Each structure stands twice: as structure tokens, then as C-alpha cells.
């Protein structure tokens, strides 16, 4: 099965049409919106299109769309608050009724387009309607009219407490912002220094958006789990403002593998074996904890001061995926997309092993197995052709590579996930460990981070930024006005603060 031209054209089409309102059973649709304002962020991330696709949930005539509300908004059905980080809440696009995700199918009154929400939440005996007697429903709570209107997060000011809990006194004003370390589809990463401890941290700044709230919650959970693994970037704390989230992460000063590959051209075999071994152990850890990364690439593989791998950026991760289960979200970086994702099929942990094969190929050859042209001319057509070749053409592995290297690349880059190296239901990671390419590798020592790295990064200046792209580090560190305002106020810590950051 291949991507045909008509399917690709449909993906490029813009429309503002909303789905019709459907009564009775809830239904889910995707609608397209006008593209957002262009930004200088990385355009190679496929998931950037998700900013143009909004999922809407139709139930009993209402057209619900996910939205973040303040703590003052209450659900029209159960009257409980709809605010809070990770809380799933919906708002009807027509009558403006506010409900929880779990409650949206229980609204008994049909939507009256272009009317106030009170018409949809009035006592049920005042509205004539036909109901299925077998359907269990909940009447809207009349007390929930207070605070029904959404309060935009941009206009909300924290005054000191929420639900009786004092706000965290440690805020952005406790940090000095020193350099820009990088940018991506998520936002940007800043080098920050804690004023009390003088410790350096990487601060990932992500703007709040209705579409990525759940993704941010997943990323935070994965960062917490990654704290004690030697090859995963860990989380120190989180700070929330009404407009942004700030993830305060380990500062990995060795730079990413993209930067070092530019210096080397290609990596020696010993380097590839060492890096891919540590990456494999990190992938194994993630899979054992039901986490699918989906975006393993050179830019997300960092080196610490000793030369060990650190995997970062869990923005596209899928959490809670058990062995044998599959998901179907189309996301990733174009050059690293697995064939099953391009075909639109359901996929599981197999895509991470494809990503590992692509990373190893790039380290050995100096370019991805299916490179994309940088030219903006006919970019859509070029992208379509490359995606077609990824489905139809076998990987061209250079003959100068060793037999073992060619063998592991062929195994990891099998187009069918059932026969891909590392994807066997029972053996899985054992096949990776026992491959001849890793014959001289002590896996037990590597699991304890006791294998000496083949290359140690150079650290010279005070801020240790020699291994980052000057395109970013030379940028002025500027915070937008809304950030500057909240630097002088207490900010809400959303659930994770380690004492080692404070002492």
C-alpha cells in the first residue's frame, strides 16, 4: 500500500468548514483551520500540521472542542471545576457550554446554534425533547451557571492561592537566562542559572496550546521516570505561567550528535557501536515502561561532559503503550518516518528500532538513508517522491561498510515491522545484543555506565556552550512581554520540584 497523489493533495488542502451537528451518539471529527503565523522554528517536524487540525467531538447537536479553562469555570453537567493542568475540558463552538471530556456525551439538551449556553443547561423539564429510555444521562446542574463562561488564561492573574494551596515562591525571577541553546517545533531551550545555587540548567519553554496540553502532561510524566536512567535527560522542576510551561532539565553541555557529526563527517565504527549501544539500552528502558519515543534522531541525542549519550525531547512520546498494543498517530520527523507510519497503519515499538537504524546509518554514512531536499521549490512534490521511495525502494547501503555494519543496518531498516531487528515478540532486545556488530561490547558494564566513551567533548568557557550551534548561542536572550510580567510574580509549580535544585 502506497501514498497516492490524491491522498497527499488532501493533506495539503485548507478549509474552514465545520462538521454538521449530529444528535444522539458522540462522534469525533478532524477539521482544518487557517495556518498559524509562520515562525522561525524547525519546519521539518511532521507534527507541525497538527496545529492546523482541530479535533471536534459532536454529541447531541453540540460541537465540542478541547480548551483550557481557568479554575473559575465549572462543568455544566457535574458542576466540578474544569481548570487545572492536564484536565480535559470541552467547549461547544456554538452555544459555548463548558463540560468535562467525560461529561460531554451526557448533556441532555440539544445545542441551539448561536444562542447563549443557558438554553442548553436549563432544567431538563423546561425543554421538550425525545430521549432514549435505555440511555443513562445526567441532567445539567443548575448551580453550575456561576462561572460558566471561560476565563481566558492570558487574562488570568494568580493572586496567591489555589484551592487553599500557596503558590510556589520559586519562580522565573530565581533564574538568570544566559544563552539560547536551540529551537524546535515545541519552542526554544534556554541556558539558565539558578541564582542561589549557581547550578546551570536547560530550560525548555513551551507555549500553552489547546492541542498540546495532553502531550505536555505526558512529556512531564516521562521526564519524571527518566530521572534515574543514565542515558535519559531528567527533569528537575516545572514552572507554569498563564501562557507557558517551563521544563527545567539537566544541562547536557556536550552538544547533540548532529553538531559532532558535522565536525567528524562520519563517525568511526567504535563510536557508532558505543553510541548505538547506549541508545539501545535507553530504548529498552522506555519500552519496558510502556513508552514509545517516536522521534529518535541525531538532534535529540546529546553527549554529556564525559561523552555518554543522553536522549532528550519526549514531545512526541506515546505513554501507556503495552507490549503488543499499537497506536496510529501520524507524527515524527520526515527523514526518520518508519514505513508503517507513512502507510497510515497502526504501529508499535517497531518504529523506535527503525529510528535507531536511521540514526546508525547517518552516523556511518553522513546522511539519512532517504534524504530530503532543502530546496523550497516544489517542496510538496519532493516530499511526496521521497515518501514514495521510502515505501518502495530498498536502502542503498554503501559497500565500504563492514559486513557486520551492513547486516545490522539491513536488519533495523526492514520495511515490514514483523521481521525488523528488535521487534520479535519474545526475543526483541536479545536479538540486538547478540548481533555480531556488538560482539566486543560489554552490555553489563554499559548498563552501569562504566564503558569508557571513545570521545570526550571539550569544555572551555564558563557556560560550556562550545558544542552548541552558534546560530542559536549568538541570539540575544529575550523574553516576550507576558513572560517578563510574570517573572516578578509567584508562579504556580505544577507538581514536581526536587530539593536538589534548591540546595
Write a concise synopsis of the structure shown:
The chain has helices at residues 5-12, 118-121, 213-225, 257-264, 269-288, 339-342, 350-365, 379-392, 403-412, 429-433, 443-447, 470-473, 481-486, 499-502; strands spanning 27-32, 53-59, 62-66, 89-92, 98-100, 161-162, 165-166, 175-183, 187-194, 200-207, 235-240, 244-250, 291-292, 301-303, 309-311, 318-319.
Instruction: State the share of residues found in helices, binned by percent.
Output: 10-25%
Total number of beta strands: 16
Q: In this structure, how is the largest beta sheet organized?
A: 5 strands, antiparallel
* Broad shape: globular
Keywords: ATP-binding, Kinase, Metal-binding, Nucleotide-binding, Phosphoprotein, Serine/threonine-protein kinase, Transferase, Zinc, Zinc-finger
GO molecular function: ATP binding; diacylglycerol-dependent serine/threonine kinase activity; zinc ion binding
Domain Phorbol-ester/DAG-type: 61-111
Organism: Cavia porcellus (Guinea pig)
What this model shows, in words?
The structure is a single chain. This protein has 503 residues and is α+β, with helices and mostly antiparallel strands. It has three domains: 137 residues, 2-Layer Sandwich (Wheat Germ Agglutinin (Isolectin 2), domain 1); 90 residues, Phosphorylase Kinase, domain 1; 191 residues, Transferase(Phosphotransferase) domain 1 (Transferase(Phosphotransferase), domain 1). It has 14 helices and 16 strands. The strands form five sheets. It has a five-stranded antiparallel β-sheet with strand order 1-2-3-4-5, with no helix packed on it. It has a five-stranded antiparallel β-sheet with strand order 8-9-10-12-11, covered by helices on one side. Strands 6-7 form a two-stranded antiparallel ribbon. The protein starts with a helix and ends with a helix. GO terms for molecular function: ATP binding; diacylglycerol-dependent serine/threonine kinase activity; zinc ion binding. Belongs to the protein kinase superfamily. AGC Ser/Thr protein kinase family. PKC subfamily. Keywords: ATP-binding, Kinase, Metal-binding, Nucleotide-binding, Phosphoprotein, Serine/threonine-protein kinase, Transferase, Zinc, Zinc-finger. InterPro entries: AGC-kinase_C, C1-like_sf, Kinase-like_dom_sf, PKC_DAG/PE, Pkinase_C, Prot_kinase_dom, Protein_kinase_ATP_BS, Ser/Thr_kinase_AS.
Amino acid at each position: 500500500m502506497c501514498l497516492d497523489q490524491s491522498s497527499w493533495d488532501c493533506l495539503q488542502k485548507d478549509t474552514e468548514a465545520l462538521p454538521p451537528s449530529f444528535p444522539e451518539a458522540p462522534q469525533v471529527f478532524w477539521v482544518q483551520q487557517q495556518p498559524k503565523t509562520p515562525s522561525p522554528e524547525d519546519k521539518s517536524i511532521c507534527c507541525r500540521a497538527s496545529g492546523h487540525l482541530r479535533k471536534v467531538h459532536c454529541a447531541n447537536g453540540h460541537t465540542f472542542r478541547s480548551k483550557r479553562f481557568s479554575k473559575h469555570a465549572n462543568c455544566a453537567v457535574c458542576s466540578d471545576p474544569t481548570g487545572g493542568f492536564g484536565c480535559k475540558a470541552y467547549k461547544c463552538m456554538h452555544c459555548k457550554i463548558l463540560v468535562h471530556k467525560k461529561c460531554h456525551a451526557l448533556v441532555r439538551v440539544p445545542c441551539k446554534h448561536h444562542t447563549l449556553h443557558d438554553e442548553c443547561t436549563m432544567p431538563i423539564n423546561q425543554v421538550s425533547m425525545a430521549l432514549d429510555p435505555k440511555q443513562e444521562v445526567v441532567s445539567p446542574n443548575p448551580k453550575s451557571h456561576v462561572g460558566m463562561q471561560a476565563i481566558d488564561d492570558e487574562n488570568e492573574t494568580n493572586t496567591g492561592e489555589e484551592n487553599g494551596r500557596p503558590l510556589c515562591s520559586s519562580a522565573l525571577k530565581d533564574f538568570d537566562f544566559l544563552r539560547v541553546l536551540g529551537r524546535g517545533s515545541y519552542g526554544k531551550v534556554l541556558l539558565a542559572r539558578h541564582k542561589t545555587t549557581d547550578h546551570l540548567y536547560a530550560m525548555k519553554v513551551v507555549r500553552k496550546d489547546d492541542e498540546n496540553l495532553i502531550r505536555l502532561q505526558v512529556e512531564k510524566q516521562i521526564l519524571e521516570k527518566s530521572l534515574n536512567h543514565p542515558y535519559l535527560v531528567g527533569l528537575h522542576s516545572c514552572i507554569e505561567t498563564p501562557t507557558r510551561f517551563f521544563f527545567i532539565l539537566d544541562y547536557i553541555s556536550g552538544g547533540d550528535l548532529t553538531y559532532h557529526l558535522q565536525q567528524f563527517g562520519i563517525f568511526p565504527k567504535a563510536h557508532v557501536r558505543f553510541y548505538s549501544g547506549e541508545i539501545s539500552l535507553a530504548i529498552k528502558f522506555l519500552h519496558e515502561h510502556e513508552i514509545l519515543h517516536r522521534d529518535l534522531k541525531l538532534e535529540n541525542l546529546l553527549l554529556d561532559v564525559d561523552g555518554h549519550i543522553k536522549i532528550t525531547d519526549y514531545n512526541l512520546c506515546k505513554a501507556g503503550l503495552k507490549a503488543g498494543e499499537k497506536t496510529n498517530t501520524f507524527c515524527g520527523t520526515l527523514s526518520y518516518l518508519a514505513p508503517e507510519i507513512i502507510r497510515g497503519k497502526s504501529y508499535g515499538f517497531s518504529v523506535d528500532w527503525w529510528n535507531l537504524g536511521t540514526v546508525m546509518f547517518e552516523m556511518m554514512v553522513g546522511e539519512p538513508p532517504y534524504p530530503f531536499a532543502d530546496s523550497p521549490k516544489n517542496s510538496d512534490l519532493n516530499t511526496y517522491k521521497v515518501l514514495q521511495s521510502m515505501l518502495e525502494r530498498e536502502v542503498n547501503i554503501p559497500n565500504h561498510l563492514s559486513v557486520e555494519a551492513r547486516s545490522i543496518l539491513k536488519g533495523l531498516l526492514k520495511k515490514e515491522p514483523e521481521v525488523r531487528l528488535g521487534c520479535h515478540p519474545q526475543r526483541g532486545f536479545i536479538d540486538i545484543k547478540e548481533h555480531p556488530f556488538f560482539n566486543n561490547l560489554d552490555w553489563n558494564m554499559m548498563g552501569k555506565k562504566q564503558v569508557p566513551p571513545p570521545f570526550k567533548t571539550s569544555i572551555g568557557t564558563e557556560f560550556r556552550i562550545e558544542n552548541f550551534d552558534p546560530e542559536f548561542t549568538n541570539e540575544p536572550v529575550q523574553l516576550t512581554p507576558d513572560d517578563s510580567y510574570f517573572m516578578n510574580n509567584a508562579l504556580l509549580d505544577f507538581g514536581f520540584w526536587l530539593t536538589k535544585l534548591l540546595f
